[in-house]
Amino acid sequence: MCGGCVGTEYPERGTTCLEGGSFLLNFVGCAQCGRRDFVLLSNRAAGLHGGEEIVTYDHLCKNCHHLIARHEYTFSVVDDYQEYTMLCLLCGRAEDSVSILPDDPRQMTPLF
C-alpha cells in the first residue's frame, strides 16, 4: 500500500461504507508513474467467515498497475442490526449500523 498516492491516509468517512468502487477525491496520483487517472479494482474476493460477509479487493493504478491500497468491507447481522465496516488507505474507514426492524429503537423518543 502506498501513502504517497493518497491525500489523506485512512480518512474518516462517517457511515459511508463502500462495497465496491474508489474514493477518487483522495487519490492525488500514482507515486510510481506520476499519473492521475482512473483506479482499477483487482483481486476481488468475497466470502463468509464466521457469519460475516467480507469483501476485499486491491486498488491499482490504471497505467502501471502500482498497488495503491487494499480495500476491506464487512457486513454482518448482530441482534436486530445490520453492521457495516470499511477499512482502506484510499477510501478511508467507516462503520454503520442499521436496524432491521420497521422502527429503529435507537431513534424512538421516550414517552416519560
Strand order of the largest sheet: 1-2-3-4-5
Overall geometry: elongated
Helix content: under 10%
Number of helical elements:
0
* SSE pattern, N- to C-terminal: EEEEE
Secondary-structure-based class equals mainly beta
- Determine the N-to-C terminus distance: 52 Å
Give the radius of gyration.
Answer: 17 Å
Strand content: 35-45%
> What is the tally of beta strands?
5
Largest sheet: 5 strands, antiparallel
Rounded mean pLDDT is 90
Q: What are the segments in which pLDDT stays under 50 over at least 5 consecutive residues? A: none
Explain the overall architecture.
The chain is mostly beta strands. The protein is 0% helix and 44% strand. It contains no helices and 5 strands. The protein has a 5-stranded antiparallel β-sheet with strand order 1-2-3-4-5, with no helix packed on it. The relative contact order is 0.25. The mean pLDDT is 90.
What layout of secondary structure does this protein have?
Elements: E1 39-49, E2 52-61, E3 67-78, E4 81-88, E5 92-99
Antiparallel strand pairs: 1-2, 2-3, 3-4, 4-5
Short characterization:
This protein has 112 residues and is mostly beta strands. 0% of the residues lie in helices and 44% in strands.
